[in-house]
Oxygen-insensitive NADPH nitroreductase
Amino acid sequence: MTISAIDTIMSHRSIRKFKNQKLSEEQIQTIVTAAQQASTSSHVMAYTIIGITDESIKEQLAEISGQPYVKDNGHLFVFCGDLHRVEQIGSNEERLAMQKSLESSEQFIVMTIDAALAAQNAAITAEGLGLGICFLGSLRNDVQKVNDLLRLPPRVIPLFGLAVGYPDQEPELKPRLPYEAVYHHNTYLQIEKQLPFIQQFDQELHDYYQIRTQNKRKDTWTEQMVRKFSNPIRMDVAPFLKMKNVNKQ
Ligand SMILES: Cc1cc2nc3c(=O)[nH]c(=O)nc-3n(C[C@H](O)[C@H](O)[C@H](O)COP(=O)(O)O)c2cc1C
């Protein structure tokens, strides 16, 4: 019996401990080809996926992220937004004509959406193959260093990693915000009307943290979010993007 795509999606939980078993070339190819089949704005395909097999690079990426599963996994993919490829296919004159567009916030949004859609296809495919995944925004802890390690040309930016492998843990499903808070009808639901659902969710997440097997703690979503957004992080990303000649105007 095959598991349906919806069952795979509904069973998602991030995996942060993998068995010491590499993915096969065939598995990698299936995952990347499925990523490529995602919708892509204007068919630009404004992303590049870099597979990391060099142990020294992997170790340095793990150090940047501070998370051992960046190193200890079946395969590590780094998803990059890429406007370099489309720039380079033009003649010198054409490149000049493209410049304004390539530097725009609009095209920056396009490349991040393209990369994220491809990555989610990759994630679902990996999970459909019985593997586990974890997205890794922690690579942006030192975005310049990742850029240098992977030798990314201008207009290519590292966005996040995707660790894939054979799961060596079985975490519980993590609850999500109530449907009513996220799905609004016709117009945006005023925050006052969302608040009761958020309170309900705070209680649910509090209970989840109390009963889960790993990393038990006392916390609510509201507390977590206020803490997170009160501590600005990675403020070097904006100047980095400008230096890479993207998201400039
Ligand atoms: C873009 C992105 C970046 C993420 N970065 C990290 C990360 O650096 N480290 C990590 O352990 N989890 C990371 N996650 C996983 C989230 O923490 C996780 O998806 C979320 O807490 C929900 O839990 P679940 O995936 O188990 O349902 C990331 C997820 C996304 C979408």
